[in-house]
Amino acid sequence: MADIEEADFMSKVSEEKLNQFRKIFETYDKGGEGSIEASKLGPVLRSCGQVPTESWVIEHIAIVDPDKTGKITWNGFRTVLNLILEVAKTEPDDHLLEAFRRFDPGVTGYIGCAQMREVLTTMGDVLSDKEIEEFLLEADPLFQGVINYQGFVQTLVHGP
Q1: What is the pLDDT of residues 6-48, one digit of tens each?
Q2: Does 101 have pLDDT greater than 70?
Q3: Cβ contacts of 96-101, under 8 Å, gap ≥ 24
Q4: Which of 15, 37, 145, 156 shows its CA 20 to 30 Å from the CA of 31?
């Protein structure tokens, strides 16, 4: 079973990327015990470039820490990464576009930066001012005051 999971995981990421994920995991493994605190799963995933919701993280902690030890091993973390990468592979653009469209009632393809700032500070996982500035710089690099969210989603999912 482990070999199948390993092959499935490796089909989603390169060896270089896997090593990068491992290094990130190890930075959160404070005691060098080969595990992280379950409460750190969200931040570790975000450090790996993923964007899970808090509810998704809580749901998946229960899967990889069923005994509620408060710890997640490297293998458990890989299981979670495998699941999140599978979701990203099957639903990349559609869910992000739908999320942005909810804030675009006129379906213009644009969202004002001020409106996006408000969303980022009041809904879901609230971002810090620095994180918001970084987000808006990526989303509106020409400082036009609006985000072309269709192009932005394309960049997020497929790169620049």
Answers
A1: 555 556 678 888 899 999 999 999 989 999 999 999 999 888 8
A2: yes
A3: 96/153, 96/156, 96/157, 97/149, 97/150, 97/153, 100/147, 100/149, 100/150, 100/152, 100/153, 101/149
A4: 15
Contacts of 57 (CB under 8 A, 6+ apart): 41, 42, 45
Q: What are phi and psi of 71, to 5 degrees?
A: -125, 145
Across all residues in the chain, what is the average pLDDT? 84
pLDDT digits (tens, 9 = 90+) for 41-90: 999 988 887 877 788 889 999 999 989 999 999 999 999 988 887 765 65
Instruction: Look at residues 2, 87, 62, 72 and name the one whose alpha carbon lies nearest to residue 40.
Output: 72
Instruction: Give the phi and the psi of residue 90 in degrees, each rounded to 5.
Output: -90, -20
